[in-house]
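Researcher: Please generate the 3D structure of the following complex. Treat every line as part of one assembly.
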Amino acid sequence: MWRFILFVVAMVGLAVLSGAFHRTRVAPGVEQPLTTEQMAALAPKGRELTLAGNCLGCHSTANGPMGAGGVPLATPFGTIYSTNITPDTTYGIGDYTRADFHRALVDGVGHGGRNLYPAMPYVYTQITRPDDVDAIYAYVMSLPPIRSGPPANTGVFRLPVRPFMNVWTLLNVPDRRAPDRTDRSEEWNRGAYLVEGLGHCGSCHTPMNAMMGPDFERSFEGAVIEGLEAPSLRAETLAARGFDIATLTEFLADGMSPQGTSFGGMYAVTHFSTSAMERADVEAMATYLLTAPDGSVPPPSPAPEPLPAAASSRLAGGQMQYLNACAGCHGTEGEGTPGFAPALRGNATVALDNPLNLATVILNGVPDHSFPGRQRMYAMPPFAHELSDENIAELATWMRAQWGGLSDPVAATTVAAIPRPFD
Amino acid sequence: MIQTQPLSLTVNGGAVGPVDVPLGMPMIDFLHDYLNLTGTRFGCGQGMCHACTVVVLEADGTTRESRTCIFGAHFFEGKSIVTIEGQAASRADGEIELTPVQQVFIDKFAFQCGYCTPGFVAGATVFIDSLRRAPVRRADLEASIEAALENHLCRCTGYVRYFEAVRDLALATPGLVVD
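Model: Done. Output below.
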């Protein structure tokens, strides 16, 4: 009996590994190649969608050629490098047919039936409509081919583990479709399509399950990724942090708004993707994100007033730290310096419940960032060597009481637990 | 009305204060305007170039660098600092006696315009002082110098001469480098 059960389990396992349960979701008819004229006509639309997906953000290194790949993605199992997606036939995807490209974006399967790793967010891009996949294909195939490949993957990704992605896909990729709600505006539907699909916002802002797949039951509840909290994007939380459709559009399109400036992993998003997209598409994304499940758009909360505790002698030490180490750039009233250092009064990062982002920025600083319209914020130096964990804890405690409406103190042990890459 | 608070500290071995200093006044402004110590250079004003660096003498006898443009004067309450004016000593006969770091920078033509030099002197002084307590292996010397001074920016591209000068001083001073 046991041998029979083992045999069945083994056979099912083999079937899963060989992809027997991997149903293709690719639209019929894509085996027919596109003509050169069709490709040329589709490319401009493909550019906007490629920007929405930030494809080139992950498939280009900071100073490397566009689309040549090589960006490391560290996982607990090893490092995966993004691939060359330029149309070079040796190093890139020059030999991808139209159907191959559809399978990559929709099924997570590369040329020759090779499973892609889920670092490629096909769990999101699968909802992209066939004509839009065609457009992205047309645009990507129009990029200059680059004759270089990324470094070899490390860890388990050196081993022949691609068949196991069938297991992952089976367990983690629900059959998602482009949203089509007749009871919502066209703008909402467009935003939903971009946010839930190409934009793959949930890759960072939705908590992961134990297999590092998105936990769609908890969509956009926020998650900690690469040492920073990707905050909740639920409509009521965004509104509580002061965002309305106009300011969220501003944040995505300009990288800065009264709630603060884009930094960390989000900077790559605003810099390469949303700031380069058409404003109408960005506004549609903001509209979708700020629409509550009942269809209403919650009104934005005003910036928190200073708590009485902020003026108390108990927090005087933290205020003194602020005046000594922060006020020179951020202003004695937290008003910031335009083009130099963001305002902290009304800053949504200061007001996050979890002090992780605030304390991490104080410890490790922020690189200089440029924004559209010749705007920029200068680099913030790390303070890990200048202020003790206790100093930073009392500083953060005072800042949260002054500008975040938060009364619970930040513990020095919380600060101590944050890694310091500059040590 | 600007809120002030009394400040006391030690600058170049001498007691300063208590003196009323505005809250939030950058240390470099206090050095320049209150103490007339204008040798500390204001560079980027954002804590990146390290031209404004001074030496902080810790209570345990160690030294470290601190930037005076991003920290308020009151950050230094009760501390003891050495600015570029406090580096060289005046001998009884009126001659100026440079520190070994200052002398080697001149001997090796380490700087050109000199704007970053007060910061480099502070950084190199702290580095050499750290070698006294924890000597470095010869093979690691260059890397340690780069790690210690890489935050100091020099727009005349003088890095190589600065680094070579520090290396030569470390090698010429007994006890700093071990095989």
